[in-house]
Design goal:
The N and C termini lie far apart (74 Å). The longest helix is centred in the N-terminal third of the chain and has 26 residues. The chain is mainly alpha-helical.
Length: 191
């Protein structure tokens, strides 16, 4: 009889008594702050989003030596070392130009649609907005965004080495890298 009574009330467990379902109680009718905003008014960093961006930056970084090995295997033996150096040297040159002027030209908050201003020259005051909001609710540290975008600035000219295999001297390649990373890539990234 106890089992039958509990089933009539809508309870499927005859050992425990069924408790009536209570309507939800409004705990606080005041407006709650957005979960991504700290009480100081600054957005909160999501550790998972930051970790994912840094993992992706690391994966793109691993593509550079992989690309060097790939292109090194496609050229005659006399050009293998040159090809591998042409793929690795963007790690140094593009890093310097990206930190000095590339990031501010590409992602400055000021400027027009083609080129940014020098408000973050040499990454000075890049932490002033301490966080970079990628999309609504996705906030990462600004330097993580700088590193992530820098990896793509590095891999892009490294991909071009396939067209210069055995045709370009090393000094010419370094000049091309510096010019590319200041005159071409930041404007393409800003679009």
């Amino acid at each position: 009889s106890t089992l039958m009574q509990s089933r009539k009330r809508g309870c499927h467990d005859h050992v425990h008594s069924c408790r009536p379902i209570r309507p939800p109680v409004a705990l606080n009718t005041r407006e709650q702050p957005h979960p991504g905003i700290l009480h100081t008014g600054q957005p909160a960093v999501n550790g998972a989003d930051t970790a994912w961006v840094l993992i992706c930056a690391g994966l793109v970084l691993f593509m550079v030596p992989g690309l060097a090995l790939f292109y090194g295997g496609m050229v005659p033996v006399r050009n293998v070392l040159t090809m591998m150096m042409q793929n690795i040297i963007p790690l140094g040159i593009i890093t310097v130009t990206w930190v000095l002027v590339g990031y501010t030209l590409a992602f400055s908050n000021k400027g027009n649609s083609l080129v940014g201003e020098f408000d973050a020259l040499a990454l000075i005051d890049v932490e002033t907005p301490q966080f970079h909001t990628v999309a609504a609710g996705v906030t990462i540290p600004a330097l993580a965004f700088v590193a992530y975008q820098m990896m793509f600035a590095i891999i892009t000219p490294a991909l071009l080495t396939g067209a210069t295999a055995g045709r370009l001297k090393f000094a010419g390649w370094t000049v091309f890298l510096a010019a590319w990373s200041i005159l071409v890539y930041p404007q393409a990234a800003r679009w």
